[in-house]
Design goal:
The chain folds into 2 domains: about 1-195, Nucleotidyltransferase, domain 5, CATH 3.30.420.10; about 200-300, TATA-Binding Protein (2-Layer Sandwich). The protein has 11 helices and 13 strands. It has helices spanning about 60-70, 80-90, 105-115, 130-135, 145-150, 165-175, 180-185, 185-200, 210-215, 220, 280-300, and strands spanning about 1-10, 20, 25, 30-40, 45-50, 95-100, 125, 200-210, 235, 240, 245-250, 255-265, 270-280. The structure holds zinc ion. Zinc ion binds near residues 228 and 230.
Length: about 300
């Protein structure tokens, strides 16, 4: 099997009104195809450069020109999309998977195939940006290709935003992180990322009068499960500092969460209250119990000049 690291460059319409919508909306028309081929041992075996004459967006979009460094004249030569894509397909070989930085290239390719009525399946795409973020950085964030190159300490001598150069960079990042180990578990990884995202659920309430009024606002103090949105059972809200409150909650289908309110005073004197849920851990539970105990003690010894504790 071949691993194909692919990068596409596409021209864009000048505005919404100019978007061509034949069978599908065409948000970008492919003008360059850059690819690097690796064998199963992750050794580079070949490179591909394709140059397409646009059929729909024939004038270079200024922003695209700026980013790619391509001139208006540079899209007046090349081959029609169909011919160039068929050459690419043949070059890929029968047994391959495609790796790209981000998920946009696949969407753009799909719409280009559809608009040219090239009704065929393409090889399966894998998003190396997602693999990098999750496996190397432990997040679901989107990193730029060049920041990944720098993070891994790889050579960065090529000009970025050129189709072939970006494919080369993408392959370097992939090889440096032994991408092939993650291909088998890719679908599972996507599910984990989705879960991770939903567990990081948070929401901000604006124009809240005071900390006290926040704690009386039903919408703020009610806890809904970040997955199914059902109202969760919860413990008492406990202050861990004057503008931070926590509680433990539980959805009978999705388990236990730790919920935190953070109140930030705005310039106009009102508060912005952010509510955030994370999966319950032992550390969180301990932190909650410690603060709950402290608060109880505070109540017992409460005097007139100790009114800061809010119920
Ligand atoms: Zn739930």
């Amino acid at each position: 099997m071949n691993y194909i690291f692919l990068d596409l460059e596409w021209n864009q319409p000048f505005g919404k009104a100019e978007i061509v919508t034949r069978s599908v909306p065409l948000y970008g028309e492919i003008i360059r195809i850059g690819a690097v081929k690796l064998d199963e041992a992750m050794n580079e075996t070949d490179r591909f450069q394709g140059c397409v004459i646009p059929k729909y967006y024939k004038k270079m979009n200024r922003c695209v020109g700026k980013v790619t460094g391509l001139s208006g004249a540079s899209i007046t030569y090349g081959q029609p999309f169909q011919k160039e894509y068929e050459r690419f397909e043949k070059w890929c070989g029968d047994d391959c998977i495609i790796l790209t930085w981000g998920s946009e290239d696949e969407r753009i390719l799909d719409s280009n195939l559809a608009i040219h009525k090239m009704d065929r399946a393409h090889p399966k795409f894998y998003d190396i940006q997602k693999i990098f973020a999750y496996k190397t950085m432990g997040t679901g964030k989107q990193y730029s290709l060049i920041s990944a190159v720098e993070h891994l300490g790889l050579p960065a001598e090529l000009k970025a935003h050129d189709a072939l150069n970006d494919a080369v960079y993408c392959a370097r990042v992939g090889v440096a992180m032994s991408f092939s180990e993650y291909i088998g578990g890719y679908e599972q990884m996507l599910r984990e990322i989705e879960e991770y995202r939903s567990e990081k659920y948070f929401r901000t309430f604006m124009n809240v009068e005071s900390v006290e009024s926040a704690m009386k606002n039903k919408r703020i103090i009610l806890c809904r499960c970040p997955v199914c949105r059902r109202i969760m059972k919860r413990s008492k809200w406990v202050f861990y500092n004057p503008t931070g409150v926590i509680c433990c909650c539980e959805c009978k289908n999705h388990g236990e969460y730790y919920s935190r309110l953070k109140m930030k005073k705005c310039a106009d004197g009102t508060y912005a209250v952010t509510k955030k849920y994370t999966r319950m851990t032992e550390e969180y539970r301990e932190f909650y119990n410690r603060n709950a105990a402290k608060e109880t003690l505070g109540h017992e010894s409460q005097t007139d000049n100790n009114k800061l504790t809010v119920q």
